[in-house]
Amino acid sequence: MTTASACGALALGAAPMAAEFRLEPSISVQESFSDNVDQDPDGQEKTALITEVSPGAILRWTGRRVTTSIDLALTASHQTDGEDEGITLEPNAAGLGSVEILRENLFLDAAAAASADLLNTREQDTEANREIIQTYSASPRLVGSFGSFADAETSYRFDQVINDDSGDSETLGNSQTHTIEAALNSGSDFAIYRWGLSGQVSESDRDNDDDVSRRDARLDLEYVVDRSFSLLASGGYQFFDDGDQSNDINDPTWNGGFRWRPGPRTDLTATYGQRDNAKSLAADLRYQITPQTGFFAIYSEVLETGQERLARDLSSIGTDPDTGALIDTNTGLPFDPSTSSTSLDNDTQRTKTLSTGLNGVRGRNTFGITGTVEFTEDQSSIGDDEDAYIVNLSWGRQLSPRAQIGTNASYARNEFKLDGREDNEYSAGIEYSYNLFENMRAFGSYDFTKQDSTDSNEEFLENLVTLGVGVTF
User: Fold this and answer.
1) What is the reported pLDDT for 88?
2) DSSP codes of every residue in 229-243
């Protein structure tokens, strides 16, 4: 699907453009040794050698009417022992593209991702417990304006989530979602009193569960107090039906807040109001400390199914304007097709998430500190709540024109309220790589992972050593 979507975009845009084109095939081969490949408790460990061969390619194409960014990889692995003994194939692909069909008015946007993800955080994060998830999105979009009075946009979006391991209501099932959106926003005539009208209708068809229907209408208002401060308010109506009567919503929505931009480096937006049948807060802070170092903090509260969460994650895919790498446009971090820190399944979940990060470059050093706190309430299973606390640290340094070193450390705590279980996972790793030639690098890494748990069957310790070589063409 990813390749087909890309080819369709290229075919539509090939005639009218002079493009900047880059295609970079690659392949890597690595051998890993694990002393606890299934992350089993003490006394049950199994050692294994894991051989991985990963062909891939990076495609970037930018022209007058077409933009395409695609990363493709397929990993074939052989494991000598453990639950995943034998040969497996895992995709790791993501991309987006846009075609300007009618100049400045009609566009076709598409995005796709496929990867092996751990959806149930009660299980260990091993290959045997990952599920191959594919997420696709396509959207024709019509934009226009009424002079300086208002700008208008109408779109239809099709989202599809496919789980290769789908089969019963206990796991994440396949879904197809159809969404129609329309928006009318004030133009340049409104410099102080700004407004926006928007509406959305969506229907989600799920294989293993009831369908989900949404209806939303909203009026947004902004009063510009001065060049740095604005007051925000909105009011509307919301309808939600997922087949569970206790989750039905048919109520007004509202919020109020502000946006503060005291200078080019700081941007803070915060609102509080009523949505999803509950009082909720939303906040977004960005601070650009230096041109290459930035801080962000984002807090959100949403009511959604697992399939809707994956579709929302895909909608945030973008490209870094400096490097061309695929990123999450909300955080600026490398794109992840699943940002959930808690389990994903068919159930409707009310999730509160706080994400923070400090990432930057200083001389030959790159560094990052990110943190996530996520509280999830399962709306269909009373008491089946899950909380997650995660901290990640990374540091890398260019030792010489050919040599690089990188280190990472993380802490993750998951609390499963229904089970009365708490897991604390600690991990650390180091990698050294050396460019043998301009297009070939050799690398070696060591990773240590240890988990403590209130359930002794979930405790483990693993050491993993990897050696490999990668080539680009």
Assistant:
1) 95
2) EEEEEEEEEEEEE-S
Which residues are bridge partners to 231 per DSSP? Answer: 223, 258
What one-character-per-residue DSSP string does 401-444 give?
SSEEEEEEEEEEEEEETTTTEEEEEEEEEEEEEEEEETTEEEEE
Scan for tokens 């994903």, then name that residue: 344
In the predicted structure, residue 13 carries a pLDDT above the cut 50: no
DSSP SS3 for 347: coil
Query: d(Cα 414, Cα 424) in Å, to the nearest integer?
Result: 7
User: Which two tokens mark 373?
Assistant: 């706190």
The DSSP string of 298-312 is: EEEEEEE-HHHHHHH
In angstroms, the CA 150 to CA 198 distance is 13
Burial letters 57-78, b for 16+ CB under 10 A, else e: bbbbbebebbbbbbbbbebebe
Q: 465: part of which helix (H) or strand (E)?
A: strand 460-472
CA distance 134 to 121: 19
Query: Would you place residue 19 in the very low, low, confident or very high pLDDT band (cuts 50, 70, 90)?
Result: low
Beta strands at 175-186 and 193-206: parallel, antiparallel or unpaired: antiparallel
Written as six digits, the tokens of 361 are 């470059």
Q: What is the pLDDT of residues 411-469, one digit of tens each?
A: 999 999 988 999 999 999 999 999 999 999 999 999 999 999 999 999 999 999 999 99
Question: Could you tell me the CA-to-CA distances from 48 to 83, 86, 236, 443, 466 in Å, in that order?
Answer: 11, 11, 57, 20, 12
pTM here is: 0.90
